[in-house]
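Lecture 7 notes: from sequence to structure.

We start with a single chain of 193 residues. Read the sequence below before looking at the structure.
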Amino acid sequence: MRSIGTSSFGLRLAAQAIAAGELIAYPTEAVYGLGCDPLDARAVRRILAIKHRPEHKGLILIAAELDALWPFILPLEPARMAEIQASWPGPNTWLLPARPDTPPWLTGAHETIAVRIPGHPIARALCAAWSGYGGGALVSTSANIAARPPARSALEVRRRLPAGLDLILTAHCGGSPRPSIIRDARSGQVLRS
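Now the structure, written as tokens:
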């Protein structure tokens, strides 16, 4: 497992690693996340195996801007979409209707997909760098074994997930005490606070 800094060069290396099918860990608002190309089924399933997370639960996607999420989501009425966009960037994840061709390894057993534009500058910069390699959205799931506490530092990632990851972007997580709030975009109902 390699560690790199978050300079523009480091972010380009991370984007190249994602393009090559590698798994990376990176800081978010509250915890370290695990990411990969969401369209690379093998890479996504490697993350699920590392976490011991069942595929039917689905995953979160993050992006630097809404345009990178459109290939995966169907829009809601303009007023609702404006409310969602006003909550970004930030630790606000929304369940939006998934496009019919969104891969099942992302949606799991759901007709929706969880999406967010993070407020953490490194997470957003990583997504922007990944866009330069033909990507845009990035898988984002907490760096931990399912049902165990998530890693909040690069060192904790190494200790808790010693095998299977390819690269760690080393930087501080944001100051948020909890992972992102998850809401149903259609109803506004909070599913995780």
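The chain has six helices and ten strands. Keep this in mind for problem set 3.
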